[in-house]
């Protein structure tokens, strides 16, 4: 492979890397948006009377993760201990 061919290949790979990075950033933004919507829906379900077990089943996550989702959205807070 000549120096020119290597340079052309390097340019093509750099362009591909930039394109993939841009695409990944878009996917991460969409993922964050969807996770926020899921958390808000989870909080609303809890407010409407859904049990932790129901949320766990619907979301397909552990009980601890359900609590974390609720806590992160300002939904369910631990009672104050005195």
Task: Give your account of this protein's structure.
The protein has 82 residues and is an all-alpha fold. Helix content is 77%, strand content 0%. The chain has helices spanning 3-47, 52-59, 63-72. It starts with a helix and ends in a 10-residue tail after the last helix. The model is unreliable at 74-82 (pLDDT under 50).
List keywords for this structure.
single chain, 82 residues, mainly alpha, 77% helix, rod-shaped, disordered C terminus
* Alpha carbon gap, first and last residue: 74 Å
Largest sheet report? none
Task: Report helical residue fraction.
Answer: over 70%
- Sheet-strand content, in percent, reads under 5%
Spans of 5+ residues with little confidence (pLDDT < 50)? 74-82
**What spatial form do the alpha-carbon principal axes imply?**
rod-shaped
List the helices and strands and how they pair.
Blueprint: H1 3-47, H2 52-59, H3 63-72
Write a short abstract of this structure.
The chain is mostly helical. The chain has helices spanning 3-47, 52-59, 63-72.
């Amino acid at each position: 492979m000549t120096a020119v061919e290597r340079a052309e290949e390097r340019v093509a790979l750099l362009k591909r890397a930039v394109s993939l990075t841009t695409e990944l950033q878009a996917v991460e933004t969409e993922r964050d948006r969807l996770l926020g919507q899921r958390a808000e829906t989870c909080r609303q379900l809890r407010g409407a009377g859904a049990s932790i077990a129901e949320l766990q089943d619907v979301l397909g996550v552990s009980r601890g993760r359900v609590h974390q989702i609720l806590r992160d959205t300002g939904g369910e807070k631990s009672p104050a201990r005195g």
